[in-house]
Request: fold
Amino acid sequence: MRASVLHPGGRMTLESRPVPTPDPGGVLVEVAAVGVCGSDTHYLRHGRIGEFVVTAPIVLGHEASGRIVAVGAGVPVERVGERVSIEPQRPDPLSPESLRGEYNLCPAMRFYATPPVDGALAEYVTIGSAFAHAVPDSVSDEAAALFEPLSVGIAALRKAAVGLGGSVLIAGAGPIGLLCAQVARASGLTRIVVTDPDPVRRAAAERFGATRVVDPGVDGAAVGDGFDAFVDASGAPPAIRAGIPAVRPGGRIVLVGMGADDLELPVSLIQSRELVLTGVFRYANTWPTAIALAAEGRVDLDGMVTGRFPLERAEDALNADREPGSIKAVVHPGRAGTEPHTEEL
Reply:
């Protein structure tokens, strides 16, 4: 099979590798679509994210969909031919975290495209059968691949714990911020304010669920207050510090964006308002919700795709975020030799 490989130092090559064999309880998936995440781009440009360092060749990509073409021992052969969305996690099923349902926190986790684990920018991948989620025919391959970032949005809104008719402030209108806004709208929230300094991203937020958008550098004071929750999808310390005071007493702060390792926080305000401050690390038990939201048309994933690339142009896909108006680039490993397609916003 062909695979796009990142080498230490930032060089990418298209290589021939053996087709993997599914383990007992696993499946082999022919990859149809792979969304590009900011973490993939970060590995390309910086060679590391925190303690995870690219020290050996690695295949990037963890937002993926495809079709099951073979099964390992113990998996019903009837699953061959099934279209699936891949939840790119391999936790230890017997870890305390997995046993209490928080398998995303398993210390022994092997996660796609996190060194040294290979990801999905290849023609075939393997995954545990329970993490290959069947998708209905009404859901496109691209949308099925984007269940992964959608799951981050679902996890964030679950942590926000805002009910019908509630309100949320979201900082950052990148892909995760836009998906948080879509999940908030689908969850029945009626006040969804998104802040971002970029006018193109603010325009995207208006299309994808925000009831109001604000340029924090110009009219930050107009954001308002009394929000049930604040979700930071930017990772920017100024955005986090600005968002916390906008939360009502007893509200919640959910940190999703990856930014500074350390941050100065208004501790007295958090204490006096009894605010709940928490983070989001990936997701757990989100795919059934993601499938339902997409199948019922309550979120628009296809509309977020702004660039399509063949596998041999994977590096271009990883750098597509530098193009004005880019939201989500998708690689199609099976479309060898096709020209990249970019849609204008």
